[in-house]
Structure formats: structure tokens, C-alpha cells
Write a structure and sequence with these properties.
Order of helices and strands: HHHHEEEEE
Structural class: alpha+beta
Helix content: 40-55%
Radius of gyration: 27 Å
Number of helices: 4
Strand order of the largest sheet: 1-2-3-5-4
Number of domains: 2
């Protein structure tokens, strides 16, 4: 095994693994890669994934140059650089598309007053549970409190906000009692 094989292989494995973690575990892993962030973005995309894409593709290109083309280290390095630039461009395009697909709509809890939702985790009286509410184009599972105990599955209405929690009240149960059979 040549030193070039080792260098290209490590670049491929390290760059590829870190790029995959960035893509799959972005929220968790972005804090770790925040140290790589250079204080600027390239058209809204952090340079960290692009550098990792370059690194992984540099490794692939270098190994391809050595073993696929049977070239020497210099030509394999140049092949790796070209592949790295292409890989960085592909990663830029992919992350740009993902960034545009993210919702930028923000809202305040006060805007939810009057909305209805369904209790997902029961709410003991004057304690906390959770409510699932569809609002602003998304589903939100929020911590909620109420004056009276509310069972899971019950429909509730947001009547207020208490800090970072919503205050809910149960809606009347709808029954078929008294309805005409032909209705």
C-alpha cells in the first residue's frame, strides 16, 4: 500500500462520513461542524458541507487516478482535485435545494389563540401535557396546560399563552343524541 492510497482513502472515508452525518443529522451535527464555519456563506450554503464534499470526492478521484487510470501520484492528485471541485459543486447544488425547501415561516404562540388541536399526552389539572395543532402550514406538538384534566384524544381550543406554553380548554363533545335518524 502506497502513502497516496492511504491519503486518498482517508480523505474519502473522513469526508464521506462527515458529509453523510451532516446530511442525515443536520440539526444535531451542525453544532459540531459550526467550528468549521468560516463566518460566511456561499449563496446561503455553509462552506462546511462543500469542503467535506470536496474532501470525499478528492479521495475518490485520487484513488480512481491511481487504480483506474494507472497514473502516478501527480496525475492522480490532479484527478482528485478535479473530482473534488465537481463534488463540491454537486454538494452546493444539493444543499441549495434543501435550503430553499425549508420553511422560513415563523409565528408567535399568541397567534395560535383560537386554534383547535387534539391532546396527544393527557393534561392533568394545572399541570402539563401536549397538544398537536396544525398551524401555519405545519403540525406542532406543543406543551399545554389547562384548568381541568383533559384526556388524550380530546379536541381543545387554545385560549391563552403562559410563557412558552399554550393554555387550552376542552371543546364540548359532539354527540348524535337528539339527532333525527334520517339526518
Amino acid at each position: 500500500m502506497h502513502v497516496a492510497d492511504l491519503v486518498f482513502g482517508v480523505c474519502l472515508l473522513a469526508g464521506g462520513a462527515l458529509l453523510l452525518l451532516t446530511l442525515v443529522l443536520d440539526d444535531i451535527f451542525s453544532g459540531v461542524l459550526g467550528a468549521i464555519h468560516l463566518g460566511f456563506d456561499v449563496a446561503g450554503v455553509s462552506p462546511a458541507p462543500m469542503l467535506l464534499g470536496f474532501l470525499a470526492m478528492f479521495g475518490i478521484g485520487g484513488l480512481f487516478g491511481l487504480h483506474g487510470l494507472g497514473a502516478g501520484v501527480t496525475v492522480s492528485t490532479l484527478t482528485g482535485i478535479v473530482a473534488g471541485l465537481l463534488g463540491s459543486g454537486v454538494v452546493f447544488g444539493a444543499f441549495k435545494v434543501l435550503k430553499q425547501a425549508e420553511s422560513s415561516d415563523t409565528f408567535r404562540l399568541e397567534e395560535m389563540i383560537g386554534s383547535t388541536g387534539r391532546v396527544s399526552v393527557g393534561i392533568p389539572a394545572n399541570r402539563f401535557g401536549t397538544v398537536l395543532i396544525s398551524f401555519a402550514g405545519g403540525s406542532h406538538n406543543l406543551t399545554a396546560t389547562a384548568d381541568a384534566e383533559i384526556a388524550p384524544g380530546r379536541t381543545v381550543k387554545v385560549v391563552g399563552v403562559a410563557g412558552s406554553n399554550i393554555v387550552v380548554a376542552p371543546l364540548p363533545l359532539v354527540t348524535n343524541e337528539g339527532a333525527r335518524p334520517d339526518a
